[in-house]
Amino acid sequence: MNREIDLDAAARILENLVAGRAQTRGDDLLPGAELAIDGGQRVALARHVRRDTNEPALFWIRPLRAAFQDPETRLPVFDQAIVRRRALHVAAARHDGPRLVLELVSGSTVTVQPARSGQLLVLQDFDTWMTTIPAGEREGLEALEHD
């Protein structure tokens, strides 16, 4: 089922994907989403997304890279300079089974789909790290208003 959808529907699907809604939980890992640009490397997405209120075709996301390990606590740590928010300026959207395909204004194609294997581990590390930072910092990251 590959069908074109409007940006309101794309926003809902994207929010559901990053939150892991309607996905099955397996191996004690919470479901979530991953992203690939032009069919390239897959990266996990943090569990928050924001649609820009001034520019409705602009979606803010936070792609994740592997965490560092704190040598003292042995807990995962993410460098905020590396896991910065990113903007997707969407020209068109399609719903293709469990995937959301976004055609960007730049000409690139972004596919967001349920996260698998290694990306779920990165997402689990990010979830753990988010519980270790101060509430104000966590709220700022989740709001995707600034880096």
Q: Which series of helices and strands comes N to C?
A: EHEEEEEEEEEEHH
Give the averaged pLDDT, no decimals: 90
Q: What's the assembly state of these chains?
A: single chain
Helix content: 10-25%
Structural class: alpha+beta
Secondary structure tally: strands: 11
Walk me through this protein's architecture.
- The chain has 147 residues and is α+β, with helices and mostly antiparallel strands.
- 24% of the residues lie in helices and 33% in strands.
- It contains three helices and eleven strands.
- Strands 1, 2, 3, 4, 5, 6, 9, 10 and 11 form a nine-stranded antiparallel β-sheet that branches. The chain has a two-stranded antiparallel ribbon with strand order 7-8.
- The radius of gyration is 15 Å and the shape is globular.
- The N and C termini lie far apart (37 Å).
